[in-house]
Specification:
This is Histidine phosphatase superfamily protein (Branch 1). Keywords: Signal. InterPro entries: His_Pase_superF_clade-1 (IPR013078), His_PPase_superfam (IPR029033). Pfam families: His_Phos_1. Helix 5 packs across helix 6. The protein is α/β, with parallel strands linked by helices. The longest helix is centred in the N-terminal third of the chain and has 18 residues. A 6-stranded mixed sheet has the order 3-2-4-1-5-6. The protein has one domain: Phosphoglycerate mutase-like (Rossmann fold, 3-Layer(aba) Sandwich). The chain is globular and about 45 Å long. Helix 4 links the parallel strand 2 and strand 3.
Length: 213
């Protein structure tokens, strides 16, 4: 069963409202510009040199299988990627490889949908407890996870490579006050002098397919 876009947007709008009222999330930033296919292609020479951090929200999931009581390590208790999401993840990875965008560190939330996104795309992904889905935590726990994510965003990648983080909408909302519009969205950061600053751009998930042509 595939996810329904309208239902998916409604569910995450409710989650966003709950997160905003229940926690002290970061002050909202202005949304970064959304790249077009032409702009993403024009950016390739810079991405090929490395030095960027990509923050991906996991790709599309089956919203008819909600994870009310998820158990880490047991994917049967968690909302899984849909067929669409698995194809999206493969398309992202193919675009990186085909266009010679180097990838070094790959970190993923311990939820299966994030790990699966990372491993389908990049054939690896280190599960990081610090990227646990932020809406399921107490306020002090969220603060700790948010600090951890900020450190990852601020850390410059190894020379000649890019870092990839795959997690959830709530985590990046807590960290910088921006909510990804769709599953599979990516935000692009360029850490300098130990600070990531605001994201440079939003990359919609469907743009990666254009780089595979």
């Amino acid at each position: 069963m595939t996810s329904h876009p309208a239902l998916r947007r409604l569910v995450f709008a409710v989650l966003a409202l709950g997160l905003a009222t229940a926690s002290a999330a970061a002050e909202p930033m202005a949304k970064p510009p959304t790249l077009t296919a032409a702009q993403l292609k024009a950016l390739l020479p810079k991405l090929q040199k490395g030095g960027y951090v990509f923050y991906f929200r996991h790709t599309a999931t089956d919203m008819f299988m909600l994870d009310d009581n998820p158990v880490m390590g047991n994917c049967d208790t968690q909302r899984p990627l849909s067929d669409e999401g698995r194809n999206q993840a493969r398309s992202i990875g193919n675009a990186f490889r085909r266009n010679k965008i180097p990838v070094g560190l790959v970190k993923a939330s311990p939820f299966c949908r994030a790990i699966d996104t990372a491993r389908l795309a990049f054939e690896r992904g280190e599960a990081d407890e610090g990227l646990y889905f932020a809406t399921r935590l107490t306020a002090p726990e969220r603060a700790s996870k948010t600090a951890h994510l900020k450190r990852l965003l601020d850390k410059a990648p190894a020379e000649g490579s890019n870092t990839v983080i795959v997690a959830h909408n709530a985590n990046i909302m807590e960290a910088i006050g921006i909510w990804p519009d769709e599953e599979g969205d990516a935000f692009l950061f360029k850490p300098e002098n130990g600070q990531a600053g605001a994201p440079l751009a939003r990359i919609p998930v469907d743009l990666w397919q254009n780089l595979n042509r």
